[in-house]
Specification:
Elements lengths: L3 H21 L4 H9 L17 H24 L5 H8 L2 H13 L5 H17 L1 E2 L5 E2 L2 H23 L4 H19 L4 H8 L1 H4 L3 H24 L2 H7 L3 H12 L15 H19 L1
Antiparallel strand pairs: 1-2
Helix pairs in contact: 1-11, 1-13, 2-3, 2-8, 3-7, 3-8, 4-6, 4-7, 4-13, 5-7, 5-12, 6-14, 7-11
Length: about 290
């Protein structure tokens, strides 16, 4: 189950990359639109019984959704500086933050080989973020995705607690409310975020693309949350490290048909990318051994 969400997200990543470059041109629009569209599952309250959790679980669920939208802001901003596979590879650093937070707050403990796998993934992610051959320069996307990874790790750790206490679907709906609050925050607290309202007439022609992207994203979040509810959050998150591999395969397969939308297949050192992806797989193997 944990392998399904990264496959779905790889599709979303390709769409996001093109939206940031050609439509948004502003890192605030992505998390705002995604946050508001994430409220769609709330329509299910007319058909599915809602079981309200206790106050502590409710707060954690709302915060988990809010922090997820915060991670999205850094994620979208990273696309302004780097191609998708590199952005996603750096996001694997979440695999380092999650076990630390899960151990401190949830008491999750993993094997030594699994921790070795974490460091293999970390090293591969860092190397993939390096730019240039003569002079080493760290990509601007690296610190941005460190921040995104940290917020995402907090989100994942909170979700494990939330889904361990109460009805899954009801708690999931509350996390989507938190995402809606995150969208409200970014669209009101920041000048660049408030610009989305004056650009609605320009953005509305892309509404179908937004719906497709965010429906897939919601599906990926739902599957990921189900996986977190059933297994160690540290392992679920690091298994998602295969996402850049899905993305590269998707880009290579579709580039001949839609070359305009798959810059991933042409930019950067592809041999280096593929080699580092293989290294990441070895890290994933150790984690799941």
């Amino acid at each position: 189950m944990a392998l399904i969400s990264p496959a779905l997200w790889s599709i979303v990543n390709i769409i996001d990359d093109n939206l940031v470059k050609k439509v948004y041109k502003n890192p605030f629009y992505g998390p705002i639109i995604t946050g508001y569209f994430s409220l769609l599952p709330l329509l299910s309250i007319f058909f599915v019984p809602f079981v309200a959790p206790d106050l502590k679980v409710t707060i954690f669920a709302l915060l988990s959704g809010f922090f997820l939208v915060c991670s999205y802001w850094f994620y979208y901003k990273s696309f302004l500086h780097e191609v998708p596979s590199v952005v996603l590879a750096i996001w694997n650093i979440t695999s380092i933050f999650v076990p630390i937070l899960a151990f401190i707050f949830l008491g999750e403990f993993l094997e030594v080989t699994q921790y070795i796998g974490f460091f293999i993934i970390l090293g591969s992610s860092f190397t993939l973020s390096l730019i240039g051959t003569k002079k080493i320069k760290i990509s601007i996307a690296f610190p941005l995705m460190i921040a995104a990874s940290f917020f995402y790790a907090i989100n994942a750790t909170m979700l494990k607690y939330v889904f361990s206490n109460g009805d899954f679907w009801s708690n999931f709906l509350i996390t989507t409310m938190g995402m809606g609050l995150g969208a409200l925050f970014f669209s009101t607290a920041f000048k660049n975020g408030r610009k989305i309202y004056s650009n609605l007439s320009r953005l509305k022609k892309y509404i179908l693309i937004f719906i497709i992207s965010d429906v897939i994203n919601i599906g990926a979040i739902l599957v990921q949350n189900l996986a977190i509810s059933k297994g160690p959050v540290s392992l679920v998150r690091v298994i998602e490290g295969v996402q850049p591999i899905y993305l590269l395969i998707l880009a290579f397969c579709l580039y001949p048909i839609f070359p305009k939308y798959f810059r991933e297949a042409t930019q950067g050192n592809l041999t280096k990318k593929i080699f580092l992806m293989i290294i990441m797989i070895s890290g994933l193997y150790l984690i799941n051994k």
